[in-house]
């Protein structure tokens, strides 16, 4: 079908969830295909993403789009209802700035989970610096979300705060995202998680803890 939408993803991937959230917020029906990356990638995934062989992949009328934030930009341009980007050019640029910041700085928290010793300490310092920057520079003291009163593309980019951050802290045995140290960011996280399209499409926390604990 020319307009059929399919999403290839993994249940515990924040990158897959980014796309799910965008589709749900836009009200776009889609078919979801769960991939088993630990055992064998499907022939369809290798067909649709032969370059990186990764999820997520959105297929729209047999046209594949890869990379989570690239996919969301495509969704935004293809289905303009319930916009995720502001109309003002400067505000759009700022939203994309924070998206890039999320992708550039976010991996530090994952390194606290995957590393040890000096490398872990450096990752913790990088994570705290990222948190302080968002707390102090994102303007969240005046806004419910990054773009104002409505959820947008930058919020989706930082969506892993809503579940993955706490899971990684628990499994790694570290505590970095303290409410007293980052009150604005904590308030934003709570606002984000209460949006129905987000709340109903967050992976189960206990299942995630069990999964990531098995990787340590």
Label this structure with key terms:
216 residues; alpha+beta; 4-stranded mixed beta sheet; globular
Question: Care to describe what's here?
Answer:
There is one protein chain. This protein is of the alpha+beta class and 216 residues long. Helices cover 53% and strands 8% of the residues. The model has no long low-confidence stretch (mean pLDDT 96). A 4-stranded mixed β-sheet has the order 2-1-3-4, covered by helices on one side. Helix 5 packs antiparallel against helix 6, helix 5 packs parallel to helix 8 and helix 8 packs across helix 11.
Task: Produce the secondary structure layout.
Elements: E1 5-9, H1 14-26, E2 31-34, H2 43-48, E3 57-60, E4 63-66, H3 68-78, H4 89-105, H5 107-114, H6 117-137, H7 153-157, H8 164-172, H9 183-194, H10 196-199, H11 205-213
Parallel strand pairs: 1-2
Antiparallel strand pairs: 1-3, 3-4
Give a brief description.
The protein is an alpha+beta fold and 216 residues long.
Can you give the helix content as a percent range? 40-55%
- The residue-averaged pLDDT reads 96
Strand order of the largest sheet: 2-1-3-4
Main sheet properties: 4 strands, mixed
**Relative strand content:** 5-15%
The beta-strand count equals 4
Low-confidence stretches: none
Helical segment tally?
A: 11
Listing every helix as H and every strand as E from the N terminus to the C terminus, the arrangement reads EHEHEEHHHHHHHHH
Overall geometry comes to: globular
Please identify the structural class as seen in this structure: alpha+beta
CA(first)-CA(last) distance: 43 Å
């Amino acid at each position: 079908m020319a307009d059929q939408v399919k999403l290839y993803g993994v249940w515990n991937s924040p990158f897959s969830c980014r796309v799910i959230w965008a589709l749900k917020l836009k009200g776009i029906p889609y078919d979801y295909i769960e991939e088993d990356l630990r055992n064998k990638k499907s022939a369809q995934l290798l067909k649709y993403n032969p370059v990186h062989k990764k999820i997520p992949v959105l297929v729209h009328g047999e046209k594949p789009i890869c990379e989570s934030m690239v996919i969301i930009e495509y969704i935004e341009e293809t289905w303009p209802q319930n916009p995720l980007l502001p109309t003002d050019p400067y505000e759009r640029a700022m939203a994309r700035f924070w998206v890039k910041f999320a992708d550039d700085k976010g991996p530090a928290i994952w390194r606290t989970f995957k590393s040890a010793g000096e490398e872990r300490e450096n990752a913790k310092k990088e994570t705290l610096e990222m948190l302080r920057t968002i707390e102090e520079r994102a303007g969240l003291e005046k806004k419910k979300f990054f773009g104002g009163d409505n959820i947008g593309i930058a919020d989706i980019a930082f969506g892993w705060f809503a579940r993955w951050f706490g899971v990684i802290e628990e499994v790694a045995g570290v505590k970095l995202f303290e409410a007293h140290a980052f009150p604005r960011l904590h308030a934003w996280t709570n606002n984000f998680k209460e949006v129905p399209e987000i709340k109903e499409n967050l992976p189960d926390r206990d299942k995630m803890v069990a999964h990531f604990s098995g990787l340590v």
